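Troubleshooting log. The previous structure file for this entry was overwritten by mistake, so regenerating from the original sequence record. Sequence copied from the archived sheet and checked twice against the printout by T.R.
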Amino acid sequence: MTRQSPTELQKKELDEHYKLLVQQYKNACHQLRTTNNAADRPSLQAQVDTLFQQMNDVDTKLKELECLHPDTTRQRQQWDDALAKIDFRKAWREFEEVYDTHINRSNGGAALLLAPDFRTMCADLFVRELYGWLQNKIGYNTVRHVPLGITDVSPLTPALFLRRLGSDFGVSIDGADAPSAAQVRTVTDKMCAVLKRGDMLFVEVKIYADFYQHEHFLGWLLDVFWPSLRASLDEATQGERTYLKWLLVFAVDRKLPTQSFPLKERYCRLSRFDPEHRSLARVPLEKWSREDVNAWLVHHSGLKLPNSGVKADEIYAASRNGEPVWVKAALQELFREHENIYHGGG
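Regenerated output below.
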């Protein structure tokens, strides 16, 4: 019997802890979604958030241990990168239409999108694949990606957003919580100024605050920032620098409410996006099918799996009918099982 090293034993312990946390997280999410008692929701939401953070912490520790095995680290990175290849068919179909109609224009174009339910529907994977698609479509060196993050503890204000955005382009925004139109235009002009003919600026904003309750921010975004951006783009595309592209995606942690909520009329379906209407277009992220999972296992996972269709059935069954976050968790378990066999552990 092969004796396991301390590192292998620690990794096995962390693997078991991760599985336990996943199950607890599933149970907590189920309670949060099914409770009819509004008074219970804050404590359940806090429990879900805590478990999610604990899962991330354990995953980070596992990755640190895997750095001791360069082959495993390289394999894991390839696997993580491939995860984005799982398809969101409707989202892709509608985005490509928006890209062709409103972004990929000879006189410049832009779109403003919302990817809701960031955690559950794995909007991060969609955005990652979107970035890769744009690089292949436009050119690797012609897409500038600007990631921003706004947490629950940060007040979601126009000033915060403009300061975060401006700092990436060397623009300092001082003072008031309500930036002036001139300050907004300074930032949008600078953002367009960094682009050369044919370039795209892709800004990804991850928001963990309750985005839909921030009426003032959404109104400012659509009625002040968006027109300023389009004016800057129009001016920048005069003369030799025509054909500039702009994409702003808000990846929001929480799902779009199904009932009435503030400024509901300012949101629209992605298929209805029109830059003149000053509305935020929702990317239709949906559950994955068994076919999506199986295609990923066969073509992108890098795992040598006989009977992948059987594995896809097992993963789908563990995922709440294809809900992406559970598909991802089940695939992570599959990878770790494969990794333990590969390295003689477990």
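Residues 1-68 form one domain. Archived copy saved in two places this time.
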